[in-house]
What does this fold into?
Amino acid sequence: MAQSLEETARQLARPGGGLLASDESTGTIGKRLEKALGEGANTEDNRRAYRELFYTAPIGEAGISGAIMFKETLYQSAADGTPFTQCLLRQGVLPGIKVDEGLVPLEGCPGETSTRGLDTLAAACKEYAAAGARFTKWRAALKVGGEAGLPSERCIEFNAAQLAEQAAICQAAGLVPIVEPELLIDGDHDQAAFAAASERVISRCVAHLWQKNVLLEACLLKPQMIIPGADYTRPRPSPDEVAEQTLRVMRRVVPAAIPGIMFLSGGQTEEEATVNLNRINQLAQEQGRAPWSLSFSFGRSLQASVLKLWSEDGSEGRQASKDACRAMAAALARANGLAVQGRYQGPHPSITLAQGSLRESFRGWRTDV
Amino acid sequence: MQATSVRSFSQSVAAAPQPRKPFTAAAAPGRRSVAVSAGLSTQKDNPFAEELKATAKYIAQRGRGILASDESNATTGKRLESVGVENTEDNRRDWRQLLYTAPGLGQYISGAIMFEETLYQKARDGTQFVDVLKGQGIVPGIKVDTGLQVLPGTDGETATQGLDNLGARCEAYYKQGARFAKWRAVLKISEGAGPSSQAILENAHGLARYAQIAQANGLVPIVEPEVTLGPGSYSIEETAYWSERVYSCVMRMLNEYDVMLEGILLKPNMCLPGLDAPPASPAEVAKYTVRTMLRTIPAAVPGIHFLSGGMSEEESTLNLQALQEACPNAPWSLTFSYGRALQSSTLKTWAGREENWDKAQQILLALAKANSEAQLGQFKGPHPVPGGGRILQALRTGGAGK
It folds into this structure.
């Protein structure tokens, strides 16, 4: 039975549901695998085996409504031959696909980027839809602060226009677009500066969505929560402050017609991300006037502990069993599914808290073009 | 290009010319207003910020709406003359006194928009109208635009005048007791075509600039982009489409001018088909109107106060009721700012006769109550003035605020 785009978007943003962002490109996931399993670990089968841990874990009942995949993964299968799309669909998780092709430096804007992939997007979407994908994700990355007071006007305008263009193309191909204008955690800016930058950027993205007639009811937004930069030296804001600032910004710039705001975790620790998400939802319930789902699209925050278990020096100094890894995947999902309902209570299942921020400097830059 | 030479550090610091960074137009930093550092608000710099938010919240509270009584002297004159009353200052004052002293009006009305003359008028017993209203729990507001001007080269499309000297006027109105302002922009749909991009841009800019100035002077701006009900058989979908285009442009401009959304109120049209098309049911009106609002108006705006336009008194109430049913968990108040829909029968009942005064006030109260109930989604009928026809008025240009 064909489901409309709006219904798909609503399903992804359903109460208590959120997204597993497992769409790391070969390069990005490769670095993590090599760190965990040693040099030479970045093989197709290892990447497949790693993703299998998640897609065969009971993440659906734990609250995952959709999983974003990388192109290679969309066509891979579990060890028993079941295609990953099937592993997901049979537990009520919709398969999604990353459709951008990475960041490139933006001409004339030092330190800033745009995103590649528009030229081939329509054809790619057709293929992905045929392979079972139901939604897409496209990531723009914008740096905040610094001497030049980034992001620059041109960077905002360029990236917002690209985000809207890709959203329109994806919808035409029958896929729900996730619009991700990530304002990076890099820098020493405070929460207020981040809020101001987020308002500028998100409102511009929405303006372009309006201009291109993108169906907002069939669209999801993936922003960062309103937090200070990773190098901000003062005490980090409390979950209450994060919740208040985040809700204020979202109320100002996100139309109610968009069914879900799926926050990225972008460098927060696994616990930080969950606790903040939980407080955001509790405050929204207390105050009302929050007409969209306030949910998650987490990558590192749903994976870091699983990867650590799976590492050579995981639990007890060796690679943990697949069952243990799956259990962790489900536990991380469950914690965040509860946070979406404002019902999360600790302790957090994460085992990576000692390492602090999950920020990485590798950003998926394409230097071969 | 950086000069390279071997020097000691102190020498370099003292004597080296600063290397010029190559200029790239693309990355040229625009000079941003100070307010941008505070985001989409002038909160850090505007001493009125908290008051603006509180006033907007008060006016937008559930179960209440706005009485639009800001007709210019010329327009008021037409109305008075239609019931045989001469257009004099005293008669205009009497008419507004009838409205503002209706006993218990404040139960249903949270704000009243006045014309400049009225803001400075007194009731027969010498009480300032602003004080009469405040005594009723009704916030006094003031129309600040000075009328419509035809845009040259367009098919009768208009821009709204009134930006010159607006700051000083707002300051004076605030001193007199006004706490919110109103500025009406008009867009029209003709057969087969929506408003031109010129008209949309001009009117959105005017609204945003007015809103910025009003907030800077302590007045909550009611932003009124009216996509006006006009002749033609265009469908309700067309109205919805053009309303979306207009409101999204208005929102973009409000953002551009750093207007604090928590301190404004919106006064839009409901989505209706053209006058020559078959009328739409309340449920249909509600469906398209709510969809348009959800798509374009952020949750930070506390209240959406629909204008009645040409809708009959009964239509205005039934449609308002339908809105609540179509959007039970609205993030903003879906309420009213009604002129004709609260005044038409009230005026006819009074007709300038002292002996009809109380009866006319009772009609006003009944109409206000009906709309208050409709705002709460609790209107059950019967309507105090059922079955009325459309209450249309011609678009008046060149008024210059008189």
Residues 2-340 of chain A form a domain with the TIM Barrel fold (CATH 3.20.20.70). The mean pLDDT of chain A is 93. Strands of chain A lie at 18-22, 64-69, 94-98, 103-105, 113-115, 135-142, 176-183, 220-221, 260-263, 293-298.
